[in-house]
């Protein structure tokens, strides 16, 4: 094997210019592949981190996953219902204190109850519709990152102001309102109540900044006429990997629909999976293109070294050894390109990670989310070596089949 490697290295060294060009082709393929993979996975991880921080790991909702079974369905095999009218009942999770106590016995994490409903906010003769969410601030802060988005005041101020209201900054700007102003909220049932703005938040999501508001849970229950009723329980787990198991157990225990963050974003997870397939397909395509350069140089060497092949065969070298020589030539170029490309990829990724830019006036400075992973280098180098081996194997098989007699006679 050492002799074969020395012969392959000699062939490659004799065509230095073509070797350098082919090596650079592989290096650029590996380098850009590593940088692109780091950027795409970094952006995915950054988005998922932001998403996971913004939503509860498990949310228990005031609805059933399947419709209630009717008594007639239990007695007869085939039934049809017409004009079925539901009972007049307030929708929501009853006895929230009992429900939370039963969950705290086994859930490893923080929980917060919420009551949300539609309301109309009026100030200075202007009206806007929004989703009003009643919360208990000390619990809400354990499961939500809304405090990080506060621009004026604090969510904690709702604890000391029974009629306090935390409003999106864009909604306040539309109304011309500010912290300290008193506004009127009217529910769908026509109940009106005055609230005092104690804080403004800005999430960067227009729908939230214009259409959401927070108030004390008791005040919202009075406004929506739902005393001692909530419509959701948000859970933030210590181990996010337990989300599906916790959701399943909570649903069995309480009877209400429990949704994990993975179930809530199932379509998004599928989109990320497809995006990763596309990414690695593009990476593979880049390295296949680089393999054409290796195929070209090895084919040229086979043509130029035809007499050398005849001499080696005459000396007793079997076809397998001849084939290995030219495969090794492709691998030598592939190894050199993989090493150079890995260095190039690391340097390019490090540079991209330092690029700073301002996205909006509300985000001071941000940078490209680059994720450094050894797996990216392993995959890129493996694909480079694989394409190099294939590129060298095709002309190597041709070289191994050459007849030394035909070569010496000049038939080739």
From TrEMBL:
<dbReference type="Pfam" id="PF12704">
    <property type="entry name" value="MacB_PCD"/>
</dbReference>
<dbReference type="Pfam" id="PF02687">
    <property type="entry name" value="FtsX"/>
</dbReference>
<protein>
    <submittedName>
        <fullName>ABC transporter permease</fullName>
    </submittedName>
</protein>
<keyword id="KW-0812">Transmembrane</keyword>
<feature type="transmembrane region" description="Helical">
    <location>
        <begin position="368"/>
        <end position="394"/>
    </location>
</feature>
<keyword id="KW-0472">Membrane</keyword>
<keyword id="KW-1003">Cell membrane</keyword>
<dbReference type="InterPro" id="IPR025857">
    <property type="entry name" value="MacB_PCD"/>
</dbReference>
<feature type="transmembrane region" description="Helical">
    <location>
        <begin position="20"/>
        <end position="40"/>
    </location>
</feature>
<dbReference type="InterPro" id="IPR051447">
    <property type="entry name" value="Lipoprotein-release_system"/>
</dbReference>
<feature type="transmembrane region" description="Helical">
    <location>
        <begin position="325"/>
        <end position="348"/>
    </location>
</feature>
<feature type="domain" description="MacB-like periplasmic core">
    <location>
        <begin position="19"/>
        <end position="250"/>
    </location>
</feature>
<dbReference type="InterPro" id="IPR003838">
    <property type="entry name" value="ABC3_permease_C"/>
</dbReference>
<feature type="transmembrane region" description="Helical">
    <location>
        <begin position="277"/>
        <end position="304"/>
    </location>
</feature>
<keyword id="KW-1133">Transmembrane helix</keyword>
<feature type="domain" description="ABC3 transporter permease C-terminal">
    <location>
        <begin position="282"/>
        <end position="404"/>
    </location>
</feature>
<comment type="similarity">
    <text>Belongs to the ABC-4 integral membrane protein family. LolC/E subfamily.</text>
</comment>
């Amino acid at each position: 094997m050492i002799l074969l490697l020395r012969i392959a290295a000699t062939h490659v060294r004799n065509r230095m210019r073509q070797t350098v060009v082919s090596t650079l082709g592989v290096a650029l393929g590996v380098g850009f592949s590593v940088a692109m993979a780091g950027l795409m996975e970094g952006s995915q991880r950054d988005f998922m981190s932001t998403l996971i921080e913004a939503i509860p790991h498990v949310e228990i909702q005031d609805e059933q996953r399947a419709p209630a079974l009717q008594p007639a369905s239990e007695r007869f095999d085939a039934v049809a219902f017409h004009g079925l009218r539901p009972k007049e009942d307030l929708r929501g999770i009853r006895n929230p204190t009992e429900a939370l106590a039963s969950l705290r016995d086994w859930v490893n994490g923080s929980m917060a109850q919420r009551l949300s409903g539609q309301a109309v906010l009026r100030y200075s003769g202007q009206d806007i519709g929004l989703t009003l969410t009643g919360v208990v601030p000390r619990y809400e802060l354990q499961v939500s990152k809304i405090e990080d988005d506060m621009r004026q005041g604090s969510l904690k101020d709702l604890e000391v102001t029974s009629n306090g209201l935390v409003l999106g900054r864009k909604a306040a700007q539309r109304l011309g309102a500010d912290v300290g102003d008193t506004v009127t909220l009217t529910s769908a049932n026509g109940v009106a109540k005055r609230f005092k703005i104690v804080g403004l938040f800005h999430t960067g999501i227009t729908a939230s900044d214009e259409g959401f508001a927070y108030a004390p849970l008791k005040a919202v229950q009075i406004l929506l006429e739902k005393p001692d009723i909530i419509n959701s329980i948000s859970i933030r787990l210590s181990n996010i990997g337990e989300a599906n198991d916790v959701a399943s157990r909570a649903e069995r225990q309480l009877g209400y629909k429990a949704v994990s963050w993975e179930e809530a974003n199932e379509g998004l997870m599928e989109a990320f999976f497809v995006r990763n397939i596309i990414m690695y397909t593009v990476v593979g395509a880049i390295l296949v293109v680089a393999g054409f350069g290796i195929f070209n140089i090895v084919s040229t060497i086979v043509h130029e070294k035809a007499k050398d092949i005849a001499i080696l065969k005459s000396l007793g070298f079997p076809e397998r050894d001849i084939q290995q020589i030219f495969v090794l030539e492709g691998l030598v170029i592939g190894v050199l390109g993989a090493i150079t490309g890995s260095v190039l990829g690391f340097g390019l990724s490090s540079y991209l990670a330092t690029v700073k830019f301002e996205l909006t006036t509300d985000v001071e400075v941000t940078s490209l989310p680059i994720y450094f992973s050894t797996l990216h280098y392993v995959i890129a180098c493996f694909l480079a070596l694989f394409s190099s081996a294939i590129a060298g194997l095709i002309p190597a098989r041709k070289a191994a089949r050459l007849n030394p007699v035909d070569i010496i006679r000049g038939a080739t």
